[in-house]
Amino acid sequence: QVQLVESGGGLVQPGGSLRLSCAASGTVFSIDAMGWDRQAPGKERELVATITSNGNTNYADSVKGRFTISRSSARNTVYLEMNSLKPEDTAVYSCNIARSYWGKGTLVTVSS
Length: 112
Hints:
By secondary structure, the chain is an all-beta fold. Helices cover 0% and strands 51% of the residues. The protein is built from no helices and eleven strands. The protein has strands at 3-7, 10-12, 18-25, 34-39, 46-51, 57-59, 67-72, 77-82, 91-97, 101-102, 106-110.
């Protein structure tokens, strides 16, 4: 059974930074892509970033240049470094493995 646990969310002022972490446990295949989605209140889920096992990354246009995804295969952990945060980044951020296994999410609130 695969389990994903996110951490690092919280309240931050506009222009600030946060680093999210997602630890995977159970039967995890290091060859799988990992990624982050987010869902804001009243809106549909949005893909934020993905990273393959060989380090290729993909980002939503709305976060390019501000967010960075990385992973530690040895630790089965994926990270999301978020800089220059905006109020519109407020959402529940969830990590996934191959878009098949999902964590419960961590809330990020960007507000002054």
